[in-house]
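Posting this for the archive.
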Amino acid sequence: MREVRLYLSRDKLSWLMYSSFFLSLLLVKPSRRPLLAVHYVHVDSPSLYGLYYRFLREEGLRDADEAVFRGVKALPCVVVDDQVVIEGRYVFARGALRLLKWYPFIDVLAFAASSALLVATVLGSTYAAVRLFPGAPGGLLAVLALLAASVAFAVAFYNVYVAALRGLVRVFLGALSVDPGRVGVPLDFEKPRGCGDVLAVEARALGLSANAFDAVDKARTSILLGRHDWLRCFLAAVDIALGRVKGPEELRRELEHSHELARSLKASLEKKVSSIGGWVCPSCGALNPPGNATCRACGSTRPIAGLEGLGPVHVDILRILYSMGGEATHGALLSRLGYEKPQVVDALRALFARKLISPALMQYEGRPVLGYRLTGEGAKVASVLAREASARRAL
């Protein structure tokens, strides 16, 4: 039985989502109910409500316990069945699991109370208008009063609903003796260096059609890079939080769990993008698309594969061999290098170990002498070095 993930918001998602959620619980056939995992994220776009509702109706639910009572961990960017990508601001698990467990029911109760209050206000204002002005045309006055009250209803409903919800949450926290400090951890007391507003990215959705993957490859790469930026900055923010938060041990454990989860997701993204030619900047850690020669975050030059850990002596040897047709005698190489002999010998050993050059027996003035030849991999690296040198001279 496959798992279907539902992503909800406990901060901004309207009552419509929860009413649809509970309606779906009643309508879905038991035979079509796969496992449903609930995660909480920020959702700012009302157009997403219908999307979530469709997932509920099409994918089904196993039961209310699985839908509501599972542990809640929000992910910054998620993929649902490779069809919809959702990015949003991170909402840290609120800590009090009992509150998380019952929050949807508190939400429905707040909605019911708000609706009852405002319906009573509409009916009461209409009745009062007719009673206070008995001489006026009752029908017309009642209609006008009803329209005015309905407008007030629409304007005031959300504020009344939010106030009722907050009040019920406070009452519930008090009844459970839950310390509000355990309910959430703010991660914005200091922005990690180089992150800017990455941690405040607005929620958005991008539909990916199975028949048009070629057309959205660029968008998918952009999403992966944005997700990596978020995870990189989130890890830095959690490192700061772990150093400053003096909360209970449970809170630190949640932070550490989130840190480990984000680190694992970041490594997975790096592996995915690297498999298509992307690269991770060694200077700032940003992930870059395959076509970038410089880092999109800090401007550092892309490291050349095969030269990691090699110094200027190694680079000069490769360049000289490339300029001499890919091979040179030991004497010719030494004569063109401006380094001490021990440095050159150590560099040659390192290049042998990396299989970038190989020894070769050559002829010099009719006598056999030792020489060096670029391997296939060494020739690739040396050609990149030569192109870079030409580009710098052109500047």
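The first strand starts at residue 3 and ends at 8. The beta strands are 3-8, 35-40, 77-80, 84-87, 204-207, 279-280, 287-288, 327-329, 357-364, 367-374.
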